[in-house]
Amino acid sequence: MTQIIIAGDSTAAVKESTKRPETGWGEYLNHYFNQHYTIINKAMNGRSSKSFILEGRLAEIDKLLQAGDYLLIQFGHNDQKNDERGTSPDKEYQHYLLDYVTVAKKNNAIPILLTSITRREYLDNSTSLNPNTLGKYPSMMKSLAHSQGIFLVDIFKESQKLLNTYTPKETKAFFLHVEKNISDNYPEGVIDNTHLNQTGAQLIAQLVAKELQKLPLPLAKDIIIEGETLC
Predict the structure, then answer these.
(1) What is the predicted pLDDT for the residue at 152?
(2) Within a domain: residue 128?
């Protein structure tokens, strides 16, 4: 059975019950693959491309990968942080991303870089999402993929394009927006424009599947989206 392993941050990760309705898109990716694939979601809340490695999480993936598997690599949100997790987009970030690629290739697995999903951040007095909400990280990942011949899906661009077809009010339905006294996990309510809820996670998982389907790789023919439409 072919494994698809996800290395990433909270936007993809499996959530604890105490975090619901927060949901990671990686929790729904298995809906789009047939029985010959298994999804192993190693994404973890709060991790950057650097901290994920320093905590030994890439080493764990190294032990799991087998020939013909796929490693999906999505970092960027926490690489922006002004703390020990942060990386410079044009140096450290690319350096650490190459570590993931090296581990995949060492195991004769196929690395695929995924730019980060967009935040729900709008330009001032506009209904358009801020194209710079993730700074240079998406473009630096794309540059690395191009220069090194690594497969890439530009989820940042595609999620911006998709969400820009909705009004700002409508896109609230995809993110972690909870009113006061509705959820036991967030009794005071929460407004979070980075993390997804269940509906948003399903939306992005389908988007990821549709973009993976465009790659010249064996997994493309095994992605099942027939009869489904993006929300």
Answers:
(1) 98
(2) yes
Q: Could you report the per-residue pLDDT of 199-223, keeping only the tens digit for each?
A: 999 999 999 999 999 999 999 999 9
Q: How far, in Å, are 116, 124, 160, 226, 230 from residue 74 at the CA level?
A: 6, 28, 16, 26, 21
Specify the residue for token string 């990686």. 26
Q: How far apart are CA 187 and CA 191, in angstroms?
A: 12
- Answer yes or no: is 230 within a domain: no
Give the Cα separation of 163 and 173 in Å (integer). 11
Residue 194: its H or E element: strand 190-196
| pTM for the full predicted model | 0.97
Looking at the structure of the chain, the number of domains it has is 1
What is the helix (H) or strand (E) element at residue 177, kind and residue range? Answer: strand 175-178
* Digit-coded pLDDT (tens) for 71-94: 999 999 999 999 999 999 999 999
The 10 Å CB-count burial string (b at 16+, else e) for 75-111 is: bbbbbbeeeebbbebeeebbebbeebbebbeebebbb
CA dihedral of residues 130, 199, 211, 49 (deg, nearest 10): 60
